[in-house]
Amino acid sequence: MKIVMINGTPIHGVTYHMKTLFLDQLKGDNQVIEFYPKDIPAFCVGCKNCFINGEEKCPHYVSVNAIWIAMLEADLLVFAYPVYAIRAPASIKSLLDHLCVHWMVHRPEPKIFEKTAVIITNSIGAPNGSAQKDVRTSLSWMGVSKIYTCGAGMMGDVFIDKMTEKHKEMLLRKMSKLADKVSDIKPRRRKSLKVNLLFSMCKLQHKMVLKSEAQPSLDNQHYIDNGWIKR
Ligand SMILES: Cc1cc2nc3c(=O)[nH]c(=O)nc-3n(C[C@H](O)[C@H](O)[C@H](O)COP(=O)(O)O)c2cc1C
């Protein structure tokens, strides 16, 4: 299976250890393409060109598109990052901001409906939910129906080289379980109830907006081209 791995930190710490365990535990023959913060686009400048004039007009198009193409070609999307300030780190958020144009309210890519995603996080304390939600929300609005999350609270264990055996075992257990869940995934044929509902709302919204437009916007043209609404 093809895997795209978005790493939210450059350091070879706990996150790196977790994602390595995860990849090692996956069955079958897998091809992995990885991105690190150095590959992630600079902060969105707010020009809104992606929405209005086309994503290729984004000043960061080259770096965004390399990741986006890899995501479209992958069977499994994996995000691995530490919790920073109870949320996802800025590198991850910077990528998510650039992918807003592919939300269902704008121009969703049909291939994304087939994907399965995994979110791997860790923190020094216990809660990982809010940090995972940052990515989960974006992926859901892009149309990903199946998203697995796995977080680890390191309870003060900061450095991988000093990690207790108990925590090493805990991480191995968690990553093995997660890898088992996604080892044999197939492209999804059906949208989940949640994605279906969001998509239906977006279709309705595009239909209504189209009525008042002399010329369809890029978003509406995308919906027309994909046969989701009619002129
Ligand atoms: C800038 C920064 C902010 C952090 N914020 C939190 C936080 O809000 N909650 C928490 O439990 N841990 C927080 N941490 C701790 C990291 O999530 C934790 O040490 C994690 O295991 C680091 O993973 P790494 O070894 O891959 O860098 C923060 C660490 C940094 C560097």
Summarize the structure.
This protein has helices at residues 14-25, 49-52, 61-73, 90-98, 129-142, 165-182, 193-211, 218-225, and strands spanning 2-7, 31-35, 76-82, 116-123, 146-153.
Rg from C-alpha positions? 19 Å
In the CATH scheme, the class of the largest domain would be: Alpha Beta
- Class derived from helix and strand content: alpha/beta
Instruction: Tell me the strand percentage band.
Output: 5-15%
**Integer tally of domains:** 2
Low-confidence stretches: none
What's the pLDDT, averaged over the residues?
96
Q: Report how far the terminal alpha carbons are from each other.
A: 39 Å
- In DSSP terms (H or I, runs of 4 or more residues), the helix count works out at 8
Numbering strands along the chain, what is their spatial order in the largest sheet?
2-1-3-4-5
Please give the oligomerization state of what you see. single chain
Which term fits the overall shape?
elongated
Descriptive overview:
The protein is α/β, with parallel strands linked by helices and 231 residues long. It has eight helices and five strands; from the N terminus they run βαβααβαβαβααα. The chain has a five-stranded parallel beta sheet, with helices on both faces. Helix 1 crosses helix 6.
What brief labels describe this structure?
231 residues; alpha/beta; Rossmann fold; 2 domains; five-stranded parallel sheet; 5 strands; 15% strand; elongated; binds flavin mononucleotide
